[in-house]
Amino acid sequence: MHPFVKILIVVNLLFAVGFWAYTAAALETTTNYKQQHADEQTRAAAAEQALQDELSAARADLQQARDSRSAADQRANEEQARAERLERDFAAAQRENGELNDSFRQISNTLGDLNTTLASITEAKDRAVADQRSAEQAREQAIATQRSAEEAQRKAQQALASAEMRLGDLEGEIATATSTLSDRDAELATLVQVTGVNRSSIVSQPQIDGAVVAVNTQMDPGLVVLNRGEAHGVTVGTTFDIYAGNLYKGKVRVVNVLGDKASAQIVQKGSAPIAQGDRASTRL
After folding, report:
1. pLDDT the model gives residue 132
2. Which of 12, 95, 108, 147 has the most Cβ atoms closer than 10 angstroms to its Cβ?
3. Angle made by CA atoms 264, 266, 272, in degrees to the nearest 5
4. What is the SS3 assignment for 219?
5. Rounded distance, CA 117 to CA 25, Å?
6. How far is CA 176 from each of CA 167, 171, 268, rounded to the nearest angstrom?
């Protein structure tokens, strides 16, 4: 056989051995990769399970914390209610203590022979009360401050409500007064137009007090005679309100003036007829 052929056969054999070795190594590597992938999946599943367990534990801790907070809130409410009961009991004890003090003072005034003994008891009681007050001073100050704030708020609310109510009343009074003033202005304008009296003399009439000396109701609306005239400042157009005691009988307006007398026309009737002897005044 030719040497070259031998060499070629040897090379082929070596190539076949190398390919077989490479194939075996690649297969082993693939098998190793599969095993590593399976191991990684196992570790990932274990890690996920561990995270799920931690999440469940955290949720349980959160629910427990919420339950603890709810219980704490309930305990706080109970303590608040207990504090309020204690405050009411303390107020009742203070009232009883005040009643006991009143009784004690009455006994002291009645039993004069026991003044020395009672004075000693009073001093001991005062010392005990002073000690008690010293212990409760901070609490009382807080309660007093709270009550003062509540009282101030209540007074402010009452003042606001009263002011709003008063404002409504004043608005109503203003509306009524405006309507009445408009009516009076119309009446006054009519009076000035009919009688020709100076309007300023009616509005600024002085204080004049007198009495009815005669009444004539035979003519409508009726006339009265007053015992006040020009000498007392009465002028035509002066108005007098007529009354007897607290009974208002109406209003008259002067139409004729003499020195010490004046005749007036009835312009407004009251709750009773005007009679001789009734009082008359320009201003009630």
Report:
1. 82
2. 108
3. 125
4. coil
5. 118
6. 14, 9, 20
Q: How far is CA 245 from CA 194, 266, 272, 279, 284, in A?
A: 33, 19, 12, 8, 12
**Has residue 274 got a pLDDT over 50?**
yes
- Under a CB-based contact definition with an 8 Å cutoff, are residues 212 and 280 in contact? yes
3-state secondary structure of 263: strand
The SS3 assignment for 213 reads strand
- pLDDT: is 68 or 236 the higher one? 236
> Tokens standing for 3?
């040497």
Cis peptide preceding 221, ω within 30 of 0? yes
Both tokens assigned to 278: 């009734």
pTM: 0.33
pLDDT tens for 107-160 read: 677 767 768 877 886 887 788 688 788 878 878 886 887 887 788 788 868 876
CB distance 233 to 239 below 8 Å: no
User: What whole-number distance in Å separates Cα of residue 237 and Cα of residue 187?
Assistant: 13
Q: What is the DSSP letter of 212?
A: E
Q: Quick one: which H or E segment has residue 211?
A: strand 209-216
How large is the average pLDDT for residues 186-211? 65
